[in-house]
Amino acid sequence: MADPFSIAAGVVGVVVPALHGLMFLLDDLQKLKDAPKTVQRLKEDVRSVEVALSTMQAVEDREWQSLGITVAEESKATISTCTNACDQFRVNLQHWTRHSEDGKLAAKDRANVGLFKQGQIKAMSEQLRNCKLTINSVVSIATLYSSIRHTHLTEEIKQTISTKQTEIGAAITTADKQLIVLEHNIEELSLSNSDDDQGEAAAGSIESKTEALQQQLEEERKAFNASRKVLEELLHKSTEEAIAKAAAAKDQSHSTTITTTFGNQNSGFQAGSINGPVSGLTFGGK
Question: Do the Cβ atoms of 243 and 163 come closer than 8 Å?
Answer without folding.
Answer: no
